Amino acid sequence: MELFTQMGIDRDDKDARDGFWARNYEFFGAPVELFLFTHKSLGKFAASDAGLFMQNLILSAHSKGLGTCAQGSVAVWEDAVRKEFQISKNYSLLCGICVGYPSQSQVNKFQANRISPSEIMLPEKNH
Ligand SMILES: Cc1cc2nc3c(=O)[nH]c(=O)nc-3n(C[C@H](O)[C@H](O)[C@H](O)COP(=O)(O)O)c2cc1C
Prior knowledge:
Layout: H1 2-6, H2 14-22, E1 32-39, H3 43-63, E2 67-71, H4 78-82, E3 91-100
Antiparallel strand pairs: 1-3, 2-3
The structure holds flavin mononucleotide.
């Protein structure tokens, strides 16, 4: 919601929201898209490993002046990705990551509001 507000997109403006989302499928104009697959047999363990891998890759790219955007939205279109590459059926598309040099676009000036650590801690049950 904060991002849409910064981009001047009204909550009720479905066309504008769809248009913004659609940019995922042109990888926001980035020259490189990475497709991250995990082995189906490894389930959540592979997802944890891949998450750590993604964070390291994203931070490493950032340290070299590159921008990235993790794209869960890309995993929805696994069939389209499979048409372009030879990928074993044992693997499943988890996420895309686009990589490029960040533009001066307004969207790249967005800074998400961070919640405090106490807000992500669950309270204990009263027995
Ligand atoms: C696993 C994962 C999937 C994401 N998928 C998308 C996506 O499909 N499209 C998108 O625009 N941003 C996506 N994001 C990026 C977030 O919207 C956000 O920009 C990014 O995590 C940077 O966080 P920050 O704005 O809190 O610094 C994803 C982030 C993560 C970690």
